[in-house]
Amino acid sequence: MIAGGFGVGKTTLVGSVSEVPPINTEAWMTEASEGVDELPSGGHKTTTTVAMDFGRISLDAGLVLYLFGTPGQSRFWFLWDDLSRGALGAIVLADTRRLDQSFAAVNYFEHDSPVPFIVAVNLFDGRLWHDLGDVRDALQLRPDIPLITCDARDSASTAETLRTLVRYAISLA
Fold first, then answer.
1. How far apart are CA 36 and CA 46, in angstroms?
2. How far is CA 158 from the centre of its chain?
3. Virtual CA dihedral for 156, 140, 171, 96, nearest 10 degrees?
4. Beta strands 147-150; 90-94: pairing state
5. For the whole model, what pTM was predicted?
6. Which of the listed residues 1, 12, 54, 59 has the most CB atoms within 10 Å of its CB?
7. What is the mean predicted confidence (pLDDT) over 104-126?
8. Which UniProt keywords apply (predicted)?
9. Looking at residue 135, what DSSP letter applies?
10. Residue 103 and residue 57: Cα distance in Å, rounded?
């Protein structure tokens, strides 16, 4: 499961690493959502995920992961319980320029879901905007929860992020 706030790169992450053409449920954003959604200012995003993104990757001959990207807007969060059912683990994708967009996802996995999770800071523009220790403090992450960086556009980086999640989930089993 790939979770996080609006516009943090969840759809991009699924698409960058999927071995099959990803299935997206993107819809055009309209003025009707302005009063409901907290849209980041200055963004150029014209679509939003309204159900899920889906992809698949084989990490090795015996391990195939099915990837489910969650919608980032709060009005679609009711889907998260269904998307997390049976999940091996979750990646909370974060953008440190808008870290507050990650609080709800971290809270969900810490308090409302038994699914193990890691946090991956998406390196927009190839740059880490804040020190990972500061990010951990801001998100109030427990020390045992992995916090890493990734580039959601890069398949090798995304695959390594998934491997980190699998190793962490196995360590808890």
1. 16
2. 11
3. 0
4. unpaired
5. 0.81
6. 1
7. 92
8. GTP-binding, Hydrolase, Nucleotide-binding
9. H
10. 28
Which superfamily does CATH assign the domain made up of 2-172 to?
P-loop containing nucleotide triphosphate hydrolases (3.40.50.300)
Strand partners, 53: 24, 69
Q: Is the dihedral of CA 33, 36, 39, 41 positive or negative?
A: positive
Which helix (H) or strand (E) is 12 found in, with range? helix 10-17
Q: What is the secondary structure of 121-133 as a DSSP string?
A: EE-GGG---S-HH
**Taking residues 138-159, what's their average pLDDT?**
96
Backbone CA torsion sign across 41, 43, 47, 51: negative
Structure tokens that stand for 77 in this block: 């969060």
* Number of residues that this document lists for the chain: 173
Distance CA 50, CA 34 (A): 15
Task: Show Cβ contacts of residue 149 under 8 Å, excluding neighbours closer than 6 positions.
Answer: 120, 121, 122, 123, 128, 132
Q: Where are the domains of the chain?
A: 2-172
Cβ contacts of residue 44 below 8 Å, gap of 6+? Answer: none
